[in-house]
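Q: I have two molecules that I believe assemble together. Could you output structure tokens for the complex as a whole instead of separate predictions?
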Amino acid sequence: MEMPAPNATILSKKAKIVERLQSVLPKDAVIHDEAETRAYECDGLSAYKCPPLAAVLPSSTEEVSAILKICHEEGVPVVPRGSGTSLAGGALPTADSIILGVARLNDVIETDYENRVIKVQTGRTNLSVTGAVEEEDFFYAPDPSSQLACAIAGNIAMNSGGAHCLKYGVTTNNLLGVTLVMMDGTITELGGAHLDAGGLDLLGLICGSEGQLGVVTEATLRILRKPEGARPVLMGFDDNEVAGACVADIIKAGVLPVAIEFMDRPCIEATEAFAKAGYPMCEALLIVEVEGSDAEIDEQLGLIMQIARKHNPVELRESKSADESAKIWLGRKSAFGAMGQINDYMCLDGTIPVSSLPFVLKRISEMSKDYGLDVANVFHAGDGNMHPLILFDANKPGDLELCEALGADILRLCVEVGGCLTGEHGVGIEKRDLMVDQFAADDLENQMAVKDVFDPTWLLNPAKVFPLEASEARRAMALAAE
Amino acid sequence: MTPKTEAELADAIASAKAPLRIIGGGTRPIGNPVAGEVLSTSALSGIELYEPGALTIVAKAGTPLAEIETALDKENQRLAFEPMDHRGLLGTTGAPTIGGVVAANVSGPRRIQAGACRDHMLGVRFVDGTGAILKNGGRVMKNVTGYDLVKLLTGSYGTLGVLSEVSLKVLPKTDTQATLMIHGLDFAHAVKAMSAALGSPYEVSAAAHMPDMGHGAVTMLRIEGFEKSVAYRAEQLMNELAPFGDITVESDPAKSGKIWTASRDVEGFQKADGDIWRISVKPTDGATLAAKLGTDKLFMDWGGGLIWAVMPKGTDLRAKMNGTQGHATLIRADEATRAKLDVFHPELEPIAKISAGLRAKFDPSGILNPGLMA
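A: Yes, here they are, computed for all two components at once.
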């Protein structure tokens, strides 16, 4: 993955830029020592590293505004960063950029149970939003796998999803308002505790814009009352296609599970060796979870198992207790860890129409053989959001490149069958150059024109989302202006 | 002009020299008055793809909503955001189109549980003001590839582009429904009761309040699902809400359904004299707003977060909101009033600047419903 060459003029005035940032921030909030900036050299896509010019850690919206104003005046690119868990390189810096980390913005501003909203600063982690309302039995629904570490800021930037979004939606469906700081330092508000912010849906536009339109410092999020209970059923099939058909039948039957997770044989084998969850060895495994009172759960699971039986499962295991539920989820939840034990891996997240599932799995397994790299599949089957994990050896020369090429082929396949490059991780740098496979030149131009309105000089996270070639003229303009 | 294909639509816009007034079925004349030649999408019609197992439907923008609802009904599915039918309230006739629903981001009572139209939108194809055919999103349920212009186009009332095709997420219909009715509450207690219900684990799918207009005040809560589950949750909720007052239950699904069609379409105000306003606020502000507005002709949906108000002709309701966060839209008024008061709530200065900037990019010569929103 190529990144643009750093701007020599910016590098040469580092001292002045640091000094100006120090003039508006506490001493410990400006990190510029080369050894210390290394802490910000990468995110979850750790194959790519580059320390930034400096990193700043503001503690208020006003400080964010002051930082952006200075960077705007100095023509310095800014890379906003939540917790740095992006798998797409969304927070990867360039040597001439400032990392704007929101980690110190982690307060709860207001919890309001009557209106079912919470207002937080966006450096707060996803799980600690739920943590703040748990004692009243409420929760924040979007639950990305990284929820222990990932920040709301990053969730908003990437419009993160999670295992339970079949029922509860993704970030954009649970975000009611934001405080937005624009590149020139202007602070403004979009939406609030009311539903459907007025005018054009700029809130919907900001969510998922990968930190390229503005920096979100505060967010009003919808919170929900916890269901009375939840329990899964585990089912094993000796054919991917049959498992796919079972998913479609469950959905058509009118039950809306909160989660339908799918694991294929390579994934089952790896997680079983690692977590010993007692999964059956078969071609495809589904975990289907429903919510409600005990009686409601029994009724729904009964219906689901009735459907499953028509597809001759090799295993059908209904959870009857919290212990059994935990055991069913154990393997799924440790899938990524299990993969990490075997090898380095790259996690894709293309989405496909559910009806193409058998075809896509078959093609992936063929491609995997062609490339000589193992691929395990674990994903959210209800919404077609795949997570192929490609195993490779980072120490073996050429293996990363081979893995990336296979990944690109798999994502092109997703687009071919009517799907998309990324369902919940974002484009970042990882899928930037594949955007031309999903969008025509006019479509990309249209999206870049939107950035022109928010950030005319293209200083916010400039080398992401769009192929470098497509954004080159605009980024060059920014440099010329500087 | 009534183009029959997307290419004809693009040609019509590319060759337009003067403003165009974009319409679908013409049943929702909402917005500041626009002068211009009518461009109708009604001939861009037909369902292109419907996969019940994938919960996805793709249709051309001019497809009648009724055609879509019939197709979904056959598979026991529906548009979960429950789009309102504006014909009764606005005194229009004709056939609402799916493009019109999307262009105005039309939702109904289930919005509080299932989300708005924009939350069910998966993809758009549209023609911008230069005549370029563009697309965004797709037909899959999770998609964060590039900017979410699907949401931006939804609710943009044809001011950024003319929709040619839309893809939506659909959901299974529920088996049955019931409505709990709490009698005799004032606005403040009604909001408290609705908040308690919506904050319970019993999955209330709609919560509305009609004040006393001759038949007694009634606060309504809908529960949907499988039969046993609906009965169970209705009972639990009745117990929990008992301190608020007398509660009755309508458990005949047909009758319960009628209650919510009437709420969705604001039937109570269809014959009222005066201007009709639609206000979006934080639910607990709904109760205090009622006092500020100085009228009892209010109907609350969305747990108090959506207020329909009847005001004397030409009254500037926004001036009476007096600092309440939220926004008010003038849904029904004569042209002179709409031109005078602005149909959409004025925006904060930086937001207004961005909105204007986006319109200038999407429609550089200002020919798509110019001035309709601002």
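A: One point stands out. The CA atoms of residues 124 and 166 of chain B lie 5 Å apart.
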